[in-house]
Amino acid sequence: MTGHVVDTARDERDARTLDLLLIDDHAVVRAGLRLLIEQQPDMQVCGEAASVSEALALICSPDVIVLDLVLGRGTRASDVVAAVTAGYPGVPVLALSMIDSLPVVDSVIAAGARGYVLKDSAATEVVDAIRAVSAGHDYLQPALGAALVRWKNRLVASANPRTASLTEREQQILRLVALGHTNAEIAGMLTLAVRTVETHRSHIVHKTGAQNRAQLVRLAQDAQLID
Questions:
Q1: At 159, is the pLDDT very low, low, confident or very high (cuts 50, 70, 90)?
Q2: CATH of the domain at 186
Q3: Domain that holds residue 142
Q4: Where are the alpha helices (H) located in the chain, listed in sequence order?
């Protein structure tokens, strides 16, 4: 009986391989991404496209879609993401863009992108982002994520006159107070002195007029700092 050798190592490697679809209207960018991806032992490119329509016409079953947000004039980034997610339902989309506008980032995430990385990021960060979204996690470039949180906090504060004058730190402490944490616990969580937390809390009361914890909780709810 003739036998054959089973390459179990290759089978295991193939089972772990992530298939990626690249959508970018610049061929040189796609070439650079392909080179980066195919240097990874667990990734390969299954398709490339210069537009959404080209991508939808491909015979490709990607595990992750790496998507540029500017695919011709007059296209909104959120519309591009929505079209791709509709055409490839359930496939995580990683936005890779030069756009660092926080409203655009927010709209793209709202439209269904699972990750957002700027094109000037390190190659290792792009690879990490691909792996993260493929595993079902959201990924936002850290500096961009921090800026987005600050921007959204300012929007919330400006929509509520009573919290509009609170600093970012005061909003943070208000949220923790509303969640039931003591001054000592907040000090430990934020690496602050208890006296510093007490001072911030005094400023919150002075600025908002809240007289007790129940009023602070309602204030935090109205400002959407807590559910």
A1: low
A2: 1.10.10.10
A3: 8-146
A4: 8-16, 27-38, 52-57, 77-87, 102-110, 123-134, 142-159, 168-178, 183-190, 194-208, 213-222
> Cα Rg for the chain, rounded, in angstroms?
23
Q: Which pLDDT belongs to residue 175?
A: 85
List beta partners, residue 116: 95, 140
Q: What are phi and psi of 48, to 5 degrees?
A: -135, 150
In sign, the C-alpha dihedral spanning 17, 22, 27, 30 is negative
Let me know if residue 152 belongs to a domain.
no
Tens digits of residue pLDDT in 94-129:
999 998 888 888 889 989 999 999 999 999 999 999
133/42 same-domain check: yes
pTM of the model: 0.64
Assess contact for 78 and 107: CB atoms under 8 A.
Answer: yes
